[in-house]
Amino acid sequence: MSNKYQEIARLKSKNVSNRKIADSLGLSRNSVNLIVKKMSSTKRTFQEFEVMEEQKIQEFLNFEIVPKRDTSYVMPDYEKLTKELSRPGVTMQLLWEEYSDECRLSGTLPYKLTQFKKYFNDHLNTHEFTDVLKNRAGVKIETDWAGSKANWTDPDTGEIQYGYLFVGVLPFSGYAFAKIYPNMKTESWIDAHIQMFNYFGGVTQIIVSDNLKTGVTKNTKDEIVLNKTYSDLAEYYSTTIVPTRVRHPRDKAMVENTVGKLTTALLAKMRNLQFFSMDEYNLHLEKELEKFNLKSFQKKKGSRFSIFNEIEKDTLTPLPPEPYELCEWKIAKVQKNSHISIRRNYYSVPHDLIGEEVQLKIYPQYFKVYYHQELVCTHTFFPSSFLGNYRTEPSHMPEKSNIYQEWNKERYLNWAKAKGEFVLKLITQIFEKSKVEQTCYQTVHSILKLADTYSDERLNSACQYALELNIRPIRKNLKYILNTNKDICQERKEKEESENTATTFLRGGDYFGK
Q1: Mean pLDDT score, 178-190
Q2: What's the pLDDT at 210?
Q3: CATH class of the structural domain 4-60
Q4: Which residues contact 118 (CB under 8 A, 6 or more apart)?
């Protein structure tokens, strides 16, 4: 996982403005401006900072001032050129050729095309030319859910089922993606983006999204916090999430306009057709979407598809070899036995993290453990039918000679012995059945602590009851025995049986009528 410095460097290498970087990462603009300024003042490129460790970056930000821009070259009038760029058919290539011709005629030096484009993009991002930026090829995708719902009939029950229309639009070409989902939850939101990227065949520099909780956890004037999975998706595809500003509809005007058109072209057009599943609905939706993208414009040449295919397609960032794998994030605390609990089983982490909180990146079949954004280990899940099991990496366990010997088998057995004969017997069995001593600590500790609530005598009798009936020795089971007084009932039953036996032996022949 990249740190903030690496993320700033990555975004600056894509010519993303400082303001948008600050909004995306939830940092103050002054902080981003300062970091970018220091990075720019070194002989290192943003790409080099992108792969550096955080400590190395901090060291480099204090020296190696780069020479100032060579003033022998003529800086173009980018404010004037920006207005020209917004005109139909005008490209940076054409503007550079005209600029170069003017320089040669006046006997001055023009910038090369690469440098010309760099300064031009810097100017566009810095000066907030919204009208120009929204027409820049490959810069951004706008995403949203449509207000109208799709519907189909359940073939088994005859009930009407409803779905939600996800829409993604490339503002430059107007090329659109659409798909129906059963809900607007995180899983649907993330999958919709993955399918959209595949449909476009690439990714833009920026994704402009609405402020739904599935994508944005918090969006205020001072702070933006993205949903962790959504942020992880953006990092995987090397793009940046920029939520729309609250009460700024212009931020996603293109997608809202396209949503309205798609609602008419797709949902309204399909309203009288009968479907019996969401998959069937989406298959027909794909055909209508293709027609929508191929339809010729009324006021200019071409179609959404032709502009995308001829101009915008090649400006997109290529897709990774494999699509993003859906995951969720959780926080767990490392227990005294060097394990964390997830899905009612236990998995080890390095013992030096005992007592610390770690982040879990959870996939369907496995999960990764991070500490301060650094990957520390990976585990495969037990089958869903397994409960209370331990998966332990021996190297994660503390050595017997270190400070963690404070809690060990001998100490727990002495503690159990003080509680009673059957407590000791039960705790001993727990240790004997475990391959790794430390995996027992949490279970044993929780059982012994029951004596604080119920007394040593009750815990001892509950352990006796569990041993006699071969009940699994975990805190939950023993607490149930104690709460339901089964240990007391067992003692009473044994006492009554003992008294009956004694009476039987004491009775004489008169009792039997002899």
Answers
A1: 93
A2: 72
A3: mainly alpha
A4: 15
